[in-house]
Amino acid sequence: MIILFVEHYMIKKNIKYIKVEIYMPYGGNDWLELTKEETIEPEIPICDPHHHFWDYRNERLPYQRYLLHELMDDINTHNVQSTVFIEARAMYNDNAPKDFKPVGEVEFVQGLSAASASGVYGKSRAASSIIGHANLNLGSKVEPVLEALISASPNRFKGIRHIVAWDKNKEVTTTPVYNLEEQMSTNNFINGAKVLSKMGLTFDSWMYFHQLPQLLNLAKQVPDLTIIVDHIGGLLQVGPYAQRKEEVIETWKKNISDLSECPNVSIKLGGLGMPITGHDWHLRDKPVGSEELSGQMKPYLDYCIEKFGPNRGMFESNFPVDKVSFSYNVLYNAFKKYSKNFSKSERSAMFHGTAVKIYDIK
Asked: From residue 193, how far is each of 88, 102, 127, 142, 244 by CA, in Å?
C-alpha cells in the first residue's frame, strides 16, 4: 500500500521523498473499512469543533474533495449535533484584493452550512460556526477584512485562525502562509489581535510546541481575546525531534502548563492522527482500533485536561486531516473509551458543551 501524507510535511514513497499539500491513505475508505467497530454510547451529544472543507479537484491525489457529503458520511455513526468549520485556505476568491481573498472561503462554507441546516443531509448541522482567516500582521488595518468576513456569514462567522507554524528544521517544513518565525510577537500582530478582541471574535492558533511561549505572551497582552490552541499545542516527534522525545515532552508540558494559567485560553483535544506527532497509525496495513488508540492518546489527553480542565477542553476530529490514521467512528469510540471514568458533566463538556460555548453555537 502506498501512503500519501501529510499536509506541510515531507513524506516517503519507496526511497524518494515527496512534499504534498494534503494527505490521505491511498485507497482511502477501503483501507479504513479494514477496521470496523460498532458505535459505542451513540446517545452522547457531540459538537465537533474542528474540521475542514476543501476541493482540490485539480490535484491528482485521493481525497482531494471533502465537502458536505463526505463529512456527513463520516459523522453519521455518532450523535454529532453540530460542527465547527476551521479555515483550510481553500475556495479563496481570486478576483478579490489580496487581503480579502479569504472571504471567498467563508462565503463558500456559508452555503454548505445553509444546505446542512435544511435537514436534507441529516440531523447534524455542519459548520454551525465558521472560523475563517484574516492576516493579523495587518495590525489595525485588519478590521475591514474582518467586517467583510462577518458580512459573508453574519450569523455563523465567529472568528479566525491564523497559522503560524514554523520550524527551523528542514525535516519539518513550515506552513507556507506567511513563513515568519516570530510573527505573534510583533506589534502589528498584537494590534491585529486587539481588533479581534474588540469585535468579539475568537482566535484559533496552530503552531508547534516550541512556539507556545509566543502565544502565552499574546494571551497576556490581549487578555479579553478568546484563544483556542489547536491540536494539543502542536507536538512534534518526527525528524530531529524523534531522537529527543523525552526533552520534547518536557518542553511541551511546561509550555502547556504555563499557557493553561491564562483563563482566556482553551485547548482542542485531538490532532494526534497527524504523522508529525510521531505515531505509526498511518503506516499500518490495518487501521488502529479504538481500544489501542484510546490508550496511546491517553498520556497527552490526561495532561491537557489536568491543566485546562474539561470546561476548557474539547474533543476534535481534525478531519479529513487525521483521517490518514483512523476512521471517524474509531476516533470518537476512542474518545468515549478514554473518558469513561470522567463524570457525566465533565464528559458532556468535552464532547459538546465547551465547544458550543466557545464558538457561540445557538
From this structure: 20, 17, 23, 9, 34
Q: What is the pLDDT averaged over residues 335-350?
A: 98
Q: What is the pLDDT of residues 222-262, one digit of tens each?
A: 999 999 999 999 999 999 999 999 999 999 999 999 999 99
State the cell numbers at 45. Answer: 451529544
Are 227 and 265 in contact, with CB atoms under 8 Å apart? yes
* CA separation for the pair 47, 356 (Å, rounded): 7
Distance in angstroms (rounded) separating the CA atoms of residues 169 and 256: 22
Q: Is the link from the previous residue into 320 a cis peptide, with omega within 30 of 0? A: yes
Query: Tens of pLDDT along 45-71?
Result: 999 999 999 998 776 555 679 999 999
CB 238 within 8 A of CB 208: no
Angle between helical axes of 245-260 and 212-221 (0-180°, round to 10): 10
Q: What is the mean pLDDT of the chain?
A: 91
Which 3 state secondary structure label does DSSP give 202?
strand
Domains of the chain are: 3-26+48-358 (3.20.20.140)
| Nearest alpha-carbon partner for 116 in 56, 72, 59, 158 | 72
Q: What percent of the chain has pLDDT over 90?
A: 84
